[in-house]
Amino acid sequence: MRRYGSSKARIALFMVLIGAILFSVSTSMAQEAAAEAAAPERPGMFSTLMRLILGHMDIVFFTIMICSVIGVTLIIKSLIHVRASVMLPDSSINAIREMVANRQFKELLEFTEKDQSFVSKALNPALKRAPSFSAMKEALETAIGEQTAEQFRKIEYLNILGNLGPLLGLLGTVLGMIDAFAALQAAKGAANPADLAGGISAALTHTFLGLMLAVPCLAAFGVLRTMVDRLTIRGSLIAEEILLSIKPAERPATAPAVKKAAAVSEA
78: Cβ–Cβ under 8 A, 6 or more apart, which residues? Predict the structure, then answer.
């Protein structure tokens, strides 16, 4: 699990997936080109699909394309930021541990104020509540909850796009079927298949585009959600460990206080 969580492993896996996709697409295009050369009157599936997509460039098409660009941008941005080297950099954690070990609390407060790592953002509100440890612990738990929710909010837009894709495809499907039935009505019910093909092809094309938007976004959202969950739990444990190392030792009860408690009990 830790090997997969490293950035090098994720980049290698991503490159392998991209290579497999490009290889399959190039192989399909080569086969279709050979099929078209052998039978020019019958175009290949890929060229037919591209011609159908480019032939139905309406408002639904452009909306799905804009959402696709946004989705790809969010996926790339999230893969860059949802990493241990960004959220939990070793340099920040080691610097915090060193300042705690040297009891440099003023420098620690200034460092966590400026540092943007998960641990620093969680510890800074707790350090401001010193010396009350109960208040520090409460502030730490609140900060951890806020930071975790913020990380999940950043990838939630992928979930929205993934659920929006089928709905946009359904909208295009409905519009295409309306077009097909309008052609049937215009022909007084005697329309030939060619008159209905335009609306039906538009309906199926929009459905295809909606699925092409939804599948990558939902898949990326599921992977990123797992990564965020794992990193935030790890950061929470580190922050709690550091806070416990700052906890002042409990003072033993003084002799007068003990005597007073004994006198009260005897009375």
Answer: 154, 155, 158, 220, 224
137-196 confidence digits (pLDDT tens): 999 999 999 999 999 999 999 999 999 999 998 888 888 778 777 777 776 666 666 666
Q: What is the pTM of this model?
A: 0.69
Q: Of 149, 158, 170, whose CA–CA distance to 236 is shortest?
A: 149
Q: What is the CA radius of gyration of the chain?
A: 30
136 and 127 Cβ atoms separated by less than 8 Å: yes
Non-local (6+) Cβ contacts of 201 within 8 A are 52, 55, 56, 176
- Token representation of residue 178: 């309306």
**C-alpha closest to that of 68 among 134, 205, 161:** 161
Q: Is the Cβ–Cβ distance between 201 and 54 less than 8 Å? A: no
**Cα distance from N-terminal residue to C-terminal residue, the chain:** 63
Whole-number Å distance between alpha carbons of 131 and 144: 20
